[in-house]
Amino acid sequence: MAKQRVLVVGGGLAGLACTMKLAELGVAVDLMSLVPVKRSHSACAQGGINSVNDLTRQQGDDEWKHFDDTVYGGDFLQHQPPVNEMTRWAPRIIDLMDRLGVPFNRTQEGFRDQRRFGGTLYKRTAFAGATTGQQLLYALDEQVRRWRADGQVRVFEGWDYLGPVVDDDGVCRGATGQNLITMEIRSFPADAVVIASGGCGLIYGRSTMSMACNGSAVSRSLQAGAKYGNGEFIQVHPTAIPGADKCRLMSESARGEGGRVWVPRTPHDPRDPKQIPEAERYYFLEERYPAYGNLVPRDIATREIFNVCVNEGLSVEAGRQCVYLDLTHIERSELDRKLGGILHIYEKFQGVDPRDVPMKIFPAVHYTMGGLWADYVRTADGGLEPENPRNHQTHVPGLYAIGECDYQYHGGNRLGANSLLSCIFTGLFVAPGIKTRLDSQKDSVAEEKFDSLVRGARSAKELEHEALLKRAGSGGENPYLLHQQLGDEMTKAALVVRKNDQLTAGIEKVNELCDRAQNCALSDTGGWTNQNVMFTKALQDMFPVAKAILHGALARDECRGAHYKPAFDMPGIDSQDPAERHREAEAWCDKFEAKNKKWLKSTIASFDSRGEPTLSYEDVDTTLIPPRPRLYGLVGAEVIERVWKERAEAAQNNAGVAGTREPAHAH
Amino acid sequence: MSAPASTAKTKPATFDVRVLRQQAPGEPQRWERFRLAYEPNSNVISVLQQIAAMSATADAKPTAPVAWEANCLEEVCGACTMVINGKVRQACTALVDRLLEDKPGEIELRPMTKFPVLRDLVVDRSRIFRSLERVKAWVPVDDYFDRGAGPKESQKQQEVRYPLSECMSCGCCLDACPQYAKVEVRPHEGESPEAFEARQRQSLEGAFVGAAAISQAMLFNEHGTGKMIADERLEALKEPGGLQVCGNAQNCVAVCPKSIPLTTSIARAGRQITLYSIRKLFGR
User: Fold this and answer.
1) Which of B74, B115, B220, B232 would you mutate first to test chain A, the one with the most A CBs within 10 A?
2) ipTM of the complex as predicted
3) Does Lipid metabolism appear among the keywords (chain B) (predicted)?
4) Interchain contact, B137 vs A96, CB within 8 Å
5) Which of A53, A161, A284, B223 has the fewest C-beta atoms under 10 angstroms from its C-beta?
6) Residue B220, in any domain of the structure
């Protein structure tokens, strides 16, 4: 049999981890990436990477608790076996990255230092300064370079993935790609293709993601038969610096160290913020959440900032949504000591010193929770079966999805410092399964019988490209302006606070933009480094994903994760009478159970030939940890929690068994 | 914009951007002027985005959008390096307000000077990554199985390695280096990409690896496992195009956007090579 190859699309943490593991297993790999792999978006992650460690173990921590924090944080929307497997692997992954030379911060004794992150009680997060993502990415990049020097890996940087090559039996036999410089279109015959192309933040116009995070590789896979899971779940970070070109993250630690969020009570007050007296300032988080103040959980902070700007019209600026994040009341020396790094970012990009002038911030799209639907095979003890080729396979046999672009692991809301973990884990874990697939395959695409399939795929893409260039000038639409409009519509309709009438209107407008995007007039019709035509292709391919997000959000009539639908809110309990409170809590729990029965499901979008999505739903595997309500900031949370526990215990006693839950970990 | 620091001065209604354009490798370069409406808080990236959207020059002639490279826009990926008002730097942190303060009314953009221009502001920097390969800039681990933690490391040692590990291969240090000479080969008619790549590699043999790669060699020579092949890295740095090409101009350290102590790395590499040569001379 001719030599088998695997094509990996995307050179971030997931793609690189998968590439080096495949190489180690003796598989020849082609790695395709839009940008030089060292410039992938993984470089931007700052905070750290989670795992149970020797220190937290002694405080009672274990893999199960990391698993529980992850599914609780994700509002129980994840299938539990993959998450369980990931948290079991986490300590080994940190060790491996340590061996590969990542300069993790150290304790005075020379151990890896750890810090605490949101959503957990333990110091589980290993970090390398404020650039953990960059350091992890580089370590994997170096290993891949080593394999490349060995000849086991070929790297195609500056290539755009145009879609999978699928044979008559529906099996993926490779992909087509286009060189961003020469514009050459090529087929990449492969016996398996792994998509590791990251998130799709650019669909929202501006986000904290990089310019390559346009979702096009995912969309092109969807249009070839893959399906999309949980598209409507998009993580929005409460505090980012809105920029003309992109949004940049302003870490939660600014609020942790005493930063106060406010807006002037007079809309668009033109005065210097320092001249606005206290009485004329609206510290809306402190007023509405006296117990948590500026440190309400991420989703609540996001929702309130959004609300004060959009619904109450109190944005600091008239033409742009933003609120003040004020650190000016804190001593300069203290700011420098504790927040120097992030204040430097604000200074560098805004040219203003946040020690003197309140920062202007606004929530920004930050992470794509949904992604390509990917399969898994669970073991009896609730993990993943190693070396099984079905793990992370999409609906197209031989086409795999890993990293941010797959839909597993994060559920409705991502736990901080878990993203890096999920990317490296899926990359390493999926490789032996793919090897099994190759070993069991009777043929290889390198054989002559596949020549016409491979050639045909290439010429089809060449024709599409030519047609796009030829149509230039006829339609008159500007792709860059259409992209801005798409971003504006998505931001208006499908961010954190979601209303069905707004979503319906959004769908209509996005449909219209989609039609208009078919008539783009290219200002560059050349055949060399034509960024104009590549951008237009990416724009056109944003629409199927955008539509899946909108339709998914419209259908999901509940609040879950970070997404808030006011019409389906479940407010807290305000009765003062104990008996009445108890009765209300019972009613609340009934309602919660009914809601879960209907909505504790993954949304699966499939696409017709025009890229229109149809939704179906899949039950979530919650057999390891039964779902429970997330009660952050809810009035009467304690009584609801008590009632919920009583009911859970009663149900367990009735069943007479503890089920698959380990008793030692009962919550 | 309510920040008093930057509203103090009146801002121009418009400003010009001059871009040195080039259609393709080997084509002549020409300047093109664009006129943009002033917007507060913009940087060179948003300027280039605006130019792409309007695709017309200052005298209203239609033109192709300017080609440029960018990705993270947070100064960590290293993609958007170009020469802005004469200085090699990242476009994302080049703020329009600051640039106009230095040179009122006009911003000048040109591609990096030491790398082959592919189009407009896009250059081929693959040589940087080849240099990393030459100096074996990696930790030679046995495998990717579970073998426990890496070597223990002191805080002090981590603080030596961490800044070196922030190098994003952006190429500023190389563009500013008087000893780093441009190497350009062009594909022949009908040459396959593989053959071209092989010829490119060949053309780089003996060419200076530059400060970034020397510093990376030192990064890995400082790691517990990485140092096990320290001699191989030093051997590479002794070869033609290695450390001896450095003329100690110190331009590299002055332009590094990450303030990496490149000259310290170069000095350290010099000491290690000397010691290595002596050891070698005496057969260890």
Assistant:
1) B74
2) 0.96
3) no
4) no
5) A284
6) yes
